[in-house]
Amino acid sequence: MNKRSTMVLFVVVFFALSLTGCHYFSAKKEIANADKLVSELKGAGGETKTPYEYCSAEKYLEISRIEFNSNDFKAALGFAQHSTSAAEAGLAQVNKK
């Protein structure tokens, strides 16, 4: 391989690994955020006051952790975002009542 081919290969591998790493850290941060919000919702009585939002948030968080442990970080990020959204909706309804 000549020097130019080696450099192109290095750049492609670097960008591929960089993009994978971005999803890893984003998913990890979003899972932690979702976990915090689900705990807050549970503490605010979300299990009985907003059962749909609580159950949705909890199950999305569970699926997110499964995907994260299976190294599918992009899917884990998506499910964690759904969990966060459901927990925020539940907290908004609990705080309204």
Task: Give keywords.
single chain; 97 residues; mainly alpha; Four Helix Bundle (Hemerythrin (Met), subunit A); 91% helix; rod-shaped
Helix content percent band: over 70%
Tell me the name of the CATH class. Mainly Alpha
Number of strands: 0
What fold name stands as the CATH topology? Four Helix Bundle (Hemerythrin (Met), subunit A)
Please give a structural write-up:
With 97 residues, the protein is mainly alpha-helical. The protein has a single domain (22-96), classed as Up-down Bundle (Four Helix Bundle (Hemerythrin (Met), subunit A)). Helices cover 91% and strands 0% of the residues. It is built from 4 helices and no strands. It has helices at residues 3-43, 46-49, 51-69, 73-96. α1 runs antiparallel to α3 and α1 (3-43) runs parallel beside α4 (73-96). The longest helix is centred in the N-terminal third of the chain and has 41 residues, at 3-43. The N and C termini lie far apart (69 Å).
What layout of secondary structure does this protein have?
Blueprint: H1 3-43, H2 46-49, H3 51-69, H4 73-96
Helix pairs in contact: 1-3, 1-4, 3-4
